[in-house]
Amino acid sequence: MDTIDGLKTVIAVVETGSFTAASERLAISKALVSKYIGEIEDKLDIRLFNRTTRKISLTEAGSNYYQHAVQLVEKYDAMVDDVVGEQASPKGLLRVSAPVTFGERWLASHIPEFSQMYPDLNLELVLNNRPVDMLEEGIDVRIKIGTVEDSNMIARHINDVAVLMCASPKYLKQHGVPVKPEDLHQHQCIIDTNFRVGRFWPLTSEQGHQVTIEVVSKLACNSPQAIANIAKAGGGIAFITHHAIADELNSGELIQVLPEYKSLTFGIYAMYPHRKHVSRKVKCFVEFMQQKFG
């Protein structure tokens, strides 16, 4: 067993909480994970984990080992980056998490270019709309749209995305075009349950006047892509982030409603663990995000 492999195995088991999850993160068998842990325990004559049929837990010695292992692996990665130089191509696996709609409609089309720039790097794009535990799930970079609350992560601000109101030409022809915020009371509106505001839509006029409208809604969804599709089918006025409907606005499939009013704005962030050494692969991807979306 290589020492660095052993250190990385202990880190993976601690951060994922199981041998099975650690094996998936490291792309090795569960048996090999167990073997590496056993070899370390035998060599040092200590027990790193208390094992039961249902779960594992760190011993005091295991916790101490893990803290040192993280520092050593970071120093090793820093040494490798320093030795090979900034001009060398990053290697290994880069796991990137992103919201589904942003990943499918904006990020995915740029992935081939990134892969061509760094041919020795393998990239896994993990798309979901749920909270992500980066350490437990082995995520190197998380793209988040919204607010940043985790102080254990570094958050690089990439850009901002606005929330717009829009509807299909068919719907507006049938039900009329709102000319003032209060007109929304007469329309069927589509709620995005990802937004805390719910059915209370905040709007700000060009003159800075703020108003919150309680809209009428029989439709709610947690997927921006689905909301866009509902709106295109004439289901009502959608309250949706710009990146989810940019193509439809350009093609005329959807028309912005009350364009002179602004509403919510969310930040787009690239997040990664708050550590002294940031790997070359993470630096390269964050810089790429800045170039494409900044």
From TrEMBL:
<dbReference type="InterPro" id="IPR036388">
    <property type="entry name" value="WH-like_DNA-bd_sf"/>
</dbReference>
<comment type="similarity">
    <text>Belongs to the LysR transcriptional regulatory family.</text>
</comment>
<dbReference type="GO" id="GO:0003700">
    <property type="term" value="F:DNA-binding transcription factor activity"/>
</dbReference>
<feature type="domain" description="HTH lysR-type">
    <location>
        <begin position="1"/>
        <end position="59"/>
    </location>
</feature>
<dbReference type="GO" id="GO:0043565">
    <property type="term" value="F:sequence-specific DNA binding"/>
</dbReference>
<keyword id="KW-0238">DNA-binding</keyword>
<dbReference type="Pfam" id="PF00126">
    <property type="entry name" value="HTH_1"/>
</dbReference>
<protein>
    <submittedName>
        <fullName>LysR family transcriptional regulator</fullName>
    </submittedName>
</protein>
<dbReference type="Pfam" id="PF03466">
    <property type="entry name" value="LysR_substrate"/>
</dbReference>
<dbReference type="InterPro" id="IPR005119">
    <property type="entry name" value="LysR_subst-bd"/>
</dbReference>
<keyword id="KW-0804">Transcription</keyword>
<keyword id="KW-0805">Transcription regulation</keyword>
<dbReference type="InterPro" id="IPR036390">
    <property type="entry name" value="WH_DNA-bd_sf"/>
</dbReference>
<dbReference type="InterPro" id="IPR058163">
    <property type="entry name" value="LysR-type_TF_proteobact-type"/>
</dbReference>
<dbReference type="InterPro" id="IPR000847">
    <property type="entry name" value="LysR_HTH_N"/>
</dbReference>
<dbReference type="GO" id="GO:0006351">
    <property type="term" value="P:DNA-templated transcription"/>
</dbReference>
